[in-house]
Amino acid sequence: MARKNPVPQATNSLVLDCLNQKCPSCGRHMWWDYSDSRKVRTLKEVIKLTLKIKRCPNKECARYHKPYRPEAEGKYA
Ligand SMILES: [Zn+2]
Predict the structure, then answer these.
(1) 7 pLDDT above the threshold of 90
(2) Is the dihedral of CA 39, 42, 43, 44 positive or negative?
(3) How far apart are CA 71 and CA 64, in angstroms?
(4) Is residue 26 part of a domain?
(5) What is the Å distance from ligand 1's center to 22 Cα?
(6) pTM for the full model?
(7) Is 58 part of any domain?
(8) Ligand 1 geometric centre to CA of 68 (Å)
(9) Are 28 and 57 in contact (CB under 8 A)?
(10) 12 C-alpha to ligand 1 centroid (Å)
């Protein structure tokens, strides 16, 4: 079913970065690869989250190029 009301404007914005800077599998430094954004509605406000996604650059690693999302994302969604 199609949305009848427009998505509300964000009243607050947050940028979330990964706390863990090293790959949990091989321990090498992970590079920031891309950003993802989403809106989260709470009872008080609408928050625009900008997530900085990292990936492991080590080709021999089991987590090679698998996205590592900010840990704090789970707090909001
Ligand atoms: Zn790795």
Answers:
(1) no
(2) negative
(3) 19
(4) yes
(5) 8
(6) 0.79
(7) yes
(8) 10
(9) yes
(10) 34
